[in-house]
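Side project, low priority. Logging it here so it doesn't get lost.
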Amino acid sequence: MRFPLLIAPAVLALGGCAGSADQTAPTPSAAVDIVTARSGQIIRDLVVYGDITADASSRQDFVAPVEARIARIAAPLGSVVSRGQPVIYLSPSPQGSLDLAQAKTSASQANAALERARRLRADGLMSDADVEAAQASARTASALLKSLQTRGYVLRASASGTISQVNYSVGGIVPAGTTIAALTIDGDVRARFGIDPALARLVHRGDPITVTPTSGGQPIASSVIAVDPVVDPVSRLASVYARVPAQAEIAPGEPLKGAITVATHDNALTVPHEALLDDGGQKYVFTVVKGKAKRVDVSTGAGTNGQVAIMTGLNVGDQVVTNGAAGVSDGMAVAQSRPASSASAKPAGVSKK
């Protein structure tokens, strides 16, 4: 009759053990990718647009020395010319012809007056000062006549190149100082690219640039030859210049695209972009210390090719959670989801120091 009393405590004991087992929760954990924070160089390609500039070093303008008539265009648009070859023949304009005739008359009259002054001086009817004044007038008139007679009415190429501009046709009257035609001189040409003034500070002479015609064509490897930080008042852009080889056969004014490779940070800690998390504007990452996640607030710099520079918060060698970071909390146990050698491989776009 006492057996039930013995069984009841045993049942209660078993029930209590089962309840304790049910109340024990598993430790939270996550399988993540982990990389090592490295010291490296952030490399970035800046895309810019521009064209070939026909500056003084690569262009010759054919300018009318006096008002003149275009008698002949010896080298039409597109002509290939050599140094010294005639390009434009001019003849005096009606006003030029009148000026020349007046200069001849003035020179003749001045010389006659000088001869008369010398005769009168010999007869004692004029002073030495009168003769000197007549000589000065004759010299001035003769110099003007010679200038009009010897002015260049044949405009020649100063170097080999291609006629890239013709502004007038035969028979036209052009004022003095007018550009009649232009020559693009053979040899390397200069390309100008517009760039955001803030980004211009990242570019230095010698930086590599790849130049490609926007209309299509093979990319041209070159380098930056100058950076002008002065902002253009129209485009609001600064300028970057690069040399383009003559073999590229790119015409002045042809639109170009450039990709400038710059180093935005020389010795920055870098981690993949996916490692970054945001808490109300505060960037942070999870590092792994003794198998557990630890939140670390960071400040960031420039980024490219999936990498971002960490300016403060991390040290070289820190283990940082990448894929899976969004599901991690501070203090959570974490484990590498794939071999460390694969996850911590050198990222693209970062030059290891």
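Brief comment: The chain is about 25% helix and 40% strand.
Revisit when time allows.
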